[in-house]
TrEMBL record:
Pfam family, any one: RRM_Rrp7
CDD domains: dRRM_Rrp7p, RRP7_Rrp7p
Region (Disordered): 290-312
Record protein name field: Ribosomal RNA-processing protein 7
Phylogenetic lineage: Eukaryota, Fungi, Dikarya, Ascomycota, Pezizomycotina
Family in the record: Belongs to the RRP7 family.
């Protein structure tokens, strides 16, 4: 099979733009190569309010960082401004979410709490220190690139389409040589030093996690206490593990009790119990049978008398 040349590479594949990226020579592989990045407007099964300003990227280079993506679009693809980049398999859920005062931090770990004030935020606290200075991705991985607005996302795709058409020289990692941590042996040497984080930093992370966990448990205990102290619509108190905490509201409990008594009286008056309903239906059926038999008897007597009476 003949090797695929640049002239044979299609510009689009299933609505994806095929953007060729030139990978500069590296000490580990001293030869330039071409990597193909696939781009299209994001179209998830369940769209969100951010979907119109998102671009879906496939076959992201394994060494990609957010700085790589920002530099690619800002310096070589029209200058579209990026809000955030979410890589497939990024580290999530390692800490614990806790309400905190507004602080300056990344948008990935900050979101509004439903039902609270607009200024209230949630921060993922108690994260263990990183042991790698940069993450690597699996081959053929994906990423969702969120731009500041929809026009910026449209501009990014338009510039990518133009670069493909004009066969522009797009170099991966251009101008980032000294701005990102190195790979290869230098990365593993750094990892060896980062495997054992500073004791004070680790202790601070553990303390923050336990403090947030204790706050969540306290809030949960208060919520359960309120549930135990309030009767439901039928006048009953919910019993949960841990026993009752605090008396129920007497006025509400008395009102519910009176309502239940009245409801029970109404049920008795209306022959609510099933066996009484069955007995009543049986008596009604018997009355119908007796009435039918009586009608039959009268009809028979009328037949017998037919023709016996003569007019005078």
């Amino acid at each position: 099979m003949a090797p695929i040349t640049a002239a044979k590479v299609p510009s689009t594949v299933h609505e994806f733009l095929v953007l060729p990226l030139r990978i500069p020579a590296q000490p580990s592989f001293p030869k330039e190569t071409t990597h193909y990045l696939y781009l299209r407007a994001n179209a998830p099964k369940v769209p969100t309010e951010n979907t119109p300003r998102e671009v879906f990227a496939v076959n992201v280079p394994i060494d990609a960082t957010e700085l790589h993506i920002r530099s690619l679009f800002a310096n070589q693809l029209g200058g579209a401004r990026i809000d955030s980049v979410a890589f497939e398999g990024a580290r999530v859920g390692k800490g614990i979410s806790a309400p905190v005062a507004p602080v300056k931090q990344g948008k990935k770990r900050k979101r509004g709490i439903e039902g609270n004030d607009e200024d209230a935020t949630v921060e993922e606290v108690g994260l263990l220190p990183e042991v790698w200075d940069r993450e690597l991705h699996r081959s053929g991985g994906t990423a969702v690139i969120t731009f500041v607005d929809k026009p910026s996302a449209d501009l990014a795709l338009k510039e990518a389409r133009r670069a493909i058409k004009n066969k522009a020289d797009i170099s991966w990692g251009q101008g980032l040589r000294n701005k990102i941590p190195p790979l290869g042996s230098a990365r593993y040497l750094t990892h060896h030093k980062m495997r054992y984080p500073d004791h004070s930093e680790l202790q601070a992370s553990v303390d923050a996690f336990m403090e947030a966990f204790a706050a969540q448990e306290e809030a949960r205990t208060k919520m359960l206490a309120r549930q135990r102290a309030e009767p439901d619509e039928d006048g009953f108190i919910t019993v949960t593990r841990g026993g009752r905490v605090g008396p129920a509201r007497e006025e509400a409990a008395k009102a519910k009790e009176e309502e239940l008594k009245k409801r029970e009286k109404d049920r008795i008056k209306a022959d609510f119990y099933r066996f009484q309903v069955r007995e009543k239906k049986k008596e009604e059926a018997k009355d119908l049978v007796r009435a039918f038999e009586e009608d039959q008897r009268k009809v028979e007597e009328m037949k017998k008398r037919r023709g016996r009476i003569r007019p005078e």
